[in-house]
Write a structure and sequence with these properties.
The complex is a heterodimer. Chain A is mainly alpha-helical. Chain A has 19 helices and two strands. Chain A is 72% helix and 3% strand.
Chain lengths: 500, 511
C-alpha cells in the first residue's frame, strides 16, 4: 500500500520544480527559436514540443495538488519582505492550465496561419510568443503582488513585438497605443497602488482574506481600489480599453491566444487576485469600496457591446466583445460576494475557450478569403461549414446558452449579483446577453443564410487543416466545459474560503 | 584614534583610503613619461583596476566595521588633511571606480575612431587625472581638499570633452561652455568654503560640523551654504543650471560621455549630500526650508521639463543627455524629502542611474561606430545590423523607464515609497508621471532600432568585443541590481542612515 500516492504513483516531478519548468521551458523555447532561425520546420516542431512540455508540467502541478508538501517557494529576495516567490493556488493553476493548453493549439494554428499568409519574421514572432507564455506562467503562479507585477510588465513588453509584427505604419501606431496604455496605466497607477499597499502593510503576499484590513479605512479604500482597477490596464476597464482594439493589428494567432486568453485574462486574473487576496471579498463587502467599480464594470459591459455592434471589421467587433466580457469578471469581483468571485473566476475559463474559438475562426476566414469586414462575408458559411460551425458554438457559449460552458459562469455571476442585492446588475447581465446575440449571431446568420457573391462559391474553399482544426477542437471544448463546470467550481472553491 | 596608534607600524591595508587615489594619480604622469601609445592603456587599466579593488575592500570594511579615518602623512585632523570613509562615500567610490574600470576597454575602439593618434596617449593621462579627481573628491574629509580634487577632475574633463573635436568641431565650443560654467561653479564653491573657514576657523568637515552644532548657525554660514549649493548645483547639472551638459555629453567622445555621465554629476551630488547633511546637519536644513521649497520644485521641474525636451530630440546622444538632467531631478527629489527612505532612494538611484546611463552611452558609441552618427535617421533599423548592441540598449532603456526587473525600477520603487510614507501624494504621481515621459523617449529609440528598415546595403556587423563586453557588463548589471539589491540597498540605506542620524555626532568625539 506504500506505492499508491496519487495519480502518477510517486510524484515524477515535485511541484516547485514543475513551477520553475513552466517558466523555463517557454523561455528556453524562445532562445531556441532564435538559434534555429534558419531551420523553419525544426524550429516550429521544437516550439510545439515546448508547448506540450509546458502543458505537461502544469498537469504535473495539478496532479500534485493535495498530496504535495512543496507548493510554495521563494526564488530570491529583492528587498526585505519583497520576494520573487511562487505558489500554487486554484485560480492561478486554472489560468495556467488554460493558457498552456491553448498554447499547443494556437501554436499549431499559428504555424498554419503564418505560412498560409506568407508573413515575415517567423523567428521573432515565435520567440516573442514563447516568451509571453513564460511570462503568463510566472504571473499565474505568483505568490505576491510584487512578483505578479514583474511578470505583468514582462508580458506587456514581450507582446509588443507581436502587435507591431507587420511593421506597417498602422501596426506601429497600434503597437504604440498598446504599449502606451498598458505601461502608462501599470506604471502610473498600478505601481503606485502596489507601493502604497506595501508601505501601509509591509507585505504584498497574496493572503486568504486580504492584507489590507486594519491598515486603511474610509474613502481611501475605494481610492486604492481605483488605482488598482484602472492600473490593471489589461483588464480593459473603460476608459482604458483602447489598447485592445489597437492590438488587433497583430496577426490573428496573437489576437487569439494573447488578446483573448493570455494578456486580457492576465488582467482580470490580476483583478481577481487583488480583490480576493489583497483586499479580501469580505473587506470589500463591509466597506462598500467596490460599489462604484461595479457600476464602471456595468457601464463597460453595455457600452462595449454597443460599440461592438457598430464595428464592421470582424476582429474589431470581437475585440469590443472581449472588452465587454472582461468586465463580467471585474463585475464578479466588485460584487464582493463569494458567488460573484467564483463566477468571475469561472468566466476566465469559459470566456477563454469561447473567444479563442471566435478569433481562430476569424483568422480562418482571413486565410481562406483575405476578408476582414463582416459586410463582405455573406454566404461564406455554406462554403466554410466547419469554420462557421465552430464560430456558432463559440458565439453561443459567449452568449451563455446551454449546453455550453459560458452559461454556467453567467449563471454564477447572476447568483452573485442576487446575493449582493444588486438587481440592476442582473438586468445588465441579461441585457448584455441580448446584445451578444445581436452582434455575434448576425455574423453567423449572414454566413449561412445570405447568398454569397457571384463566383465566390467556386473560388473559395475551407481553410487549410492546420487552421480549421484548432477552432473545431476549442469549440468542442466549449461543449465539454458545460459538463465539467461543477468540477471547475469545486476546484475554485478554496479561493472564497470554501472547501474543495 | 590615539597618537600612539599612528606611530605603530601600519600594514598596506591601513593605507587603502589613500591608495585608491594615489595609484591613478601616479599612473597619470607615468603614461606621459613613458610616452608609448601602446603602454598607455595597460597602465591606465591597471591603475583603474587597482582603485576598483581597493574600493571594494573599503566598502566591505565600512559596511562591516563603520567609519574609517585616515590622516594624510600622519598629520592628525583637524590640522592635517583627513580622508574619511563611511558608507555614503564608499558606495560612490565603488560606482566611480567600477565605471572607470569598465569603460576603459571600451575606450580602445572609441578613441581609435574619434581621437587623432597623437592625442591618444594624452587621452589616457587626462582620463586618469579625471578619475583621480573624482575619487579624491569622494574620499576626502577636508572641505578645501574637495575643491582641489574637484578642479583636477574638472580641468581634465574640459580637455576630454574637447577631444571630440575630430568628429565634430562643436566639441570645442561645448568644452569652452563647460569650462566657463564649471569655473563659475567652482568659484561659487570655493567662496562658500572661504565663508565656512572664516566663520569656523577650520576646514575639516567633521570639525566644521561640530562647530556648527555647538555654536549654532549665523548669517555667514547661511551664505556659505547658499554658495556651496549653487556651486555644486552647477556641477551636478541641477535643473536650471544644466546648460553645459547637453552639448558636453553630445560632442564628447563616446567613451568620455559614458564615463562622465555615470560619474561626474554623481560625484557632484555626493558632495552636495555631504555638505548638506554632514556639515550643515539635517536640523539646519529643516530650519532653512531651502531644501524643501527650493530643491523639490526644481527637482520636479527637471523631471518634467528635461524629459519633455528629451522626447523631442532627434539625436540619441542628446536625448540621453536631457534624460540625465531629468534623472538628476529624481535624485534631488529623494534628497529633498529629508527622510531616510528618500535619501536611500537618492543614493541608490545615483548608483542605478549611473550604470544605466553608462550602458546607454556605450551602446550609442557602438552604434555610431557602424552608423556614422547618433541621429535617429542614421540608426534606423540597426536592430538587424547590430543585434547584440541594440538589445543591450533595449535592456538599459527599460531600466531608464524603470521596468520591474531592472535597476531603475528599484530606485523608483524606493522613491515612490518615500513620497507615500510622508503623504506627498502629488509627488508620488509626479514620479510615475515623469516615468511615462521616459517610456516615450525610450520607445522612440526602440522603434527606430527595430521597426524601421535599415539603410540600403546594410550588413550584419557587430561592434568589436572590446565594446560589446563592457556594454553587456553594464547592461547585465542593470538587470542584476534590479533583482539582487542586497549590495545596493544595504549600502544606500546605511549611507542614508549615516547622513541623517548623528554619524558625525557619534564620530566627532572620536578624536
Amino acid at each position: 500500500m506504500v506505492c499508491c500516492t496519487g495519480l502518477w504513483g510517486a510524484q515524477p516531478v515535485d511541484t516547485n520544480t514543475a513551477i520553475l519548468l513552466t517558466m523555463l521551458i517557454p523561455a528556453a523555447a524562445s532562445i531556441g527559436n532564435l538559434l534555429l532561425r534558419n531551420h523553419a520546420n525544426l524550429r516550429d516542431s521544437m516550439t510545439l514540443g515546448a508547448a506540450a512540455a509546458t502543458f505537461a508540467a502544469v498537469l504535473v502541478i495539478l496532479s500534485n495538488v493535495g498530496n504535495s508538501t512543496t507548493e510554495a517557494f521563494s526564488l530570491l529576495t529583492v528587498f526585505p519582505g519583497l520576494d520573487i516567490a511562487f505558489n500554487v493556488e486554484p485560480l492561478g493553476l486554472m489560468f495556467a492550465i488554460i493558457a498552456s493548453g491553448l498554447w499547443i493549439l494556437t501554436h499549431i494554428y499559428g504555424v498554419g496561419y503564418m505560412r498560409g499568409n506568407n508573413e515575415d519574421n517567423h523567428t521573432r514572432f515565435f520567440a516573442s510568443f514563447s516568451l509571453a507564455i513564460g511570462a503568463v506562467m510566472g504571473l499565474a503562479f505568483s505568490a505576491n503582488m510584487f512578483t505578479l507585477f514583474l511578470f505583468y510588465e514582462m508580458l506587456t513588453l514581450s507582446t509588443y513585438p507581436l502587435v507591431a509584427h507587420k511593421g506597417t505604419p498602422e501596426a506601429i501606431r497600434g503597437a504604440r497605443t498598446y504599449l502606451g496604455i498598458l505601461m502608462g496605466t501599470s506604471i502610473g497607477l498600478l505601481l503606485v497602488a502596489v507601493i502604497w499597499t506595501y508601505t501601509i502593510t509591509g507585505t504584498l503576499d497574496f493572503t486568504q482574506g486580504g492584507i489590507l484590513r486594519g491598515h486603511i479605512t474610509g474613502p481611501m479604500v475605494a481610492l486604492l481600489l481605483g488605482l488598482y482597477a484602472f492600473g490593471i490596464g489589461k483588464a480593459a476597464l473603460m476608459p482604458f480599453h483602447r489598447w485592445l482594439p489597437a492590438a488587433m493589428v497583430a496577426p490573428t494567432p496573437v489576437s487569439a491566444l494573447l488578446h483573448a486568453v493570455a494578456v486580457v485574462k492576465a488582467g482580470v486574473f490580476t483583478m481577481l487576485k487583488v480583490g480576493i487576496y489583497i483586499f479580501g471579498i469580505d473587506f470589500l463587502a463591509e466597506t462598500g469600496a467596490s460599489e462604484w467599480l461595479m457600476w464602471v464594470a456595468a457601464y463597460t459591459i453595455i457600452a462595449a457591446s454597443i460599440v461592438a455592434m457598430t464595428k464592421d471589421n470582424l476582429k474589431a467587433r470581437l475585440a469590443y466583445s472581449t472588452i465587454s466580457q472582461l468586465s463580467y469578471i471585474t463585475l464578479g469581483m466588485a460584487l464582493a460576494t463569494s458567488m460573484g468571485a467564483l463566477g468571475g473566476g469561472m468566466h476566465i475559463a469559459m470566456h477563454a475557450m469561447g473567444k479563442i474559438t471566435l478569433f481562430m475562426c476569424a483568422g480562418s476566414i482571413y486565410v481562406a478569403t483575405h476578408k476582414t469586414n463582416i459586410s463582405q462575408m455573406n454566404g461564406l458559411g455554406r462554403i466554410m461549414p466547419i469554420t462557421y460551425g465552430a464560430f456558432l458554438i463559440g458565439a453561443l457559449s459567449i452568449i451563455g446558452l446551454p449546453p455550453l460552458g459560458g452559461s454556467w459562469s453567467k449563471w454564477l455571476l447572476i447568483v452573485g449579483a442576487a446575493d449582493a442585492g444588486q438587481q440592476v446588475m442582473i438586468a445588465v447581465l441579461m441585457l448584455s446577453s441580448m446584445l451578444n446575440v445581436a452582434y455575434l449571431l448576425s455574423i453567423v446568420g449572414k454566413g449561412f443564410f445570405w447568398p454569397a457573391k457571384a463566383g465566390e462559391a467556386t473560388v473559395i474553399r475551407e481553410s487549410p487543416t492546420l487552421v480549421w482544426l484548432p477552432p473545431a477542437i476549442t469549440a468542442f471544448g466549449c461543449l465539454l466545459l458545460f459538463f465539467y463546470a461543477t468540477d471547475i467550481r469545486d476546484f475554485l472553491m478554496p479561493i472564497v474560503g470554501g472547501m474543495r | 584614534m590615539s597618537a600612539e596608534a599612528l606611530h605603530t607600524a601600519r600594514t598596506l591595508s591601513d593605507h587603502l583610503p589613500i591608495l585608491v587615489v594615489l595609484v591613478p594619480f601616479l599612473a597619470a604622469p607615468l603614461t606621459v613619461l613613458i610616452g608609448s601609445r601602446r603602454l598607455a592603456w595597460p597602465i591606465a587599466f591597471g591603475a583603474a583596476l587597482a582603485s576598483f579593488i581597493v574600493s571594494v575592500l573599503l566598502l566591505l570594511r565600512v559596511l562591516d566595521s563603520g567609519v574609517i579615518s585616515y590622516a594624510i602623512g600622519g598629520w592628525l585632523p583637524p590640522l592635517g588633511i583627513e580622508y574619511r570613509i563611511d558608507a555614503a562615500n564608499a558606495f560612490v567610490l565603488l560606482l566611480v571606480s567600477a565605471i572607470g574600470t569598465i569603460v576603459l576597454p571600451y575606450t580602445i575602439q572609441s578613441i581609435k575612431n574619434e581621437i587623432p593618434p597623437r592625442h591618444q596617449t594624452l587621452f589616457y593621462t587626462m582620463y586618469l587625472l579625471c578619475f583621480t579627481g573624482l575619487l579624491g573628491v569622494v574620499v576626502t574629509g577636508d572641505a578645501f581638499n574637495v575643491f582641489v580634487f574637484l578642479e583636477i577632475s574638472s580641468l581634465s574633463t574640459y580637455v576630454l570633452v574637447s577631444m571630440g573635436a575630430r568628429t565634430d568641431k562643436r566639441a570645442l565650443t561645448a568644452a569652452y561652455d563647460y569650462l566657463i560654467m564649471g569655473t563659475i561653479g567652482a568659484t561659487f564653491f570655493v567662496i562658500g568654503i572661504g565663508f565656512l573657514y572664516a566663520a569656523t576657523g577650520t576646514l575639516n568637515m567633521a570639525d566644521i560640523a561640530r562647530y556648527i552644532q555647538e555654536h549654532g548657525t549665523n548669517r555667514t554660514l547661511e551664505t556659505a551654504f547658499a554658495f556651496i549649493v549653487v556651486g555644486m548645483g552647477l556641477k551636478a547639472a541641477v535643473y536650471p543650471l544644466h546648460l553645459w551638459l547637453p552639448n558636453a555629453y553630445t560632442y564628447a567622445p563616446s567613451a568620455v560621455t559614458s564615463f562622465l555621465a555615470a560619474t561626474a554629476t554623481k560625484v557632484a551630488i555626493y558632495v552636495l549630500l555631504r555638505f548638506m547633511f554632514t556639515i550643515f546637519q539635517p536640523d539646519f536644513l529643516f530650519e532653512m526650508h531651502a531644501v524643501r521649497w527650493v530643491m523639490m520644485p526644481l527637482a520636479i521641474l527637471a523631471m518634467f521639463a528635461a524629459s519633455l525636451i528629451a522626447v523631442f530630440q532627434s539625436d540619441f546622444k542628446r536625448m540621453l543627455a536631457y534624460s540625465s538632467i531629468a534623472q538628476i531631478g529624481y535624485i534631488l527629489l529623494g534628497i529633498g524629502m529629508l527622510s531616510t527612505t528618500g535619501l536611500t532612494a537618492a543614493i541608490v538611484h545615483l548608483f542605478n542611474h549611473g550604470i544605466t546611463k553608462a550602458a546607454l552611452f556605450m551602446g550609442v558609441g557602438a552604434l555610431v561606430l557602424r552608423s556614422g552618427g547618433s541621429f535617429y535617421a542614421k540608426i534606423e533599423g540597426m536592430g538587424k545590423a547590430m543585434p547584440f548592441t541594440s538589445f543591450a540598449i533595449v535592456i538599459a532603456g527599460l531600466s531608464l523607464i524603470g521596468v520591474p526587473g531592472t535597476a531603475g525600477f528599484i530606485s523608483k520603487w524606493v522613491l515612490v515609497q518615500a513620497a507615500i510614507e510622508q503623504g506627498y501624494w502629488p509627488l508620488a504621481l509626479a514620479i510615475v508621471g515623469s516615468s511615462l515621459l521616459a517610456i516615450i523617449y525610450v520607445w522612440r529609440v526602440i522603434e527606430t532600432l527595430y521597426m524601421k528598415q535599415p539603410a540600403e546595403g546594410w550588413t550584419r556587423q557587430e561592434a568589436p568585443l572590446t565594446m560589446l563586453v563592457p556594454l553587456w557588463i553594464m547592461a547585465g548589471a542593470t538587470v542584476w541590481f534590479g533583482i539582487d539589491t542586497d549590495l545596493t540597498m544595504t549600502a544606500a540605506r546605511t549611507a542614508a542612515d549615516g547622513l541623517l542620524h548623528g554619524f558625525m555626532g557619534g564620530a566627532a568625539s572620536g578624536y
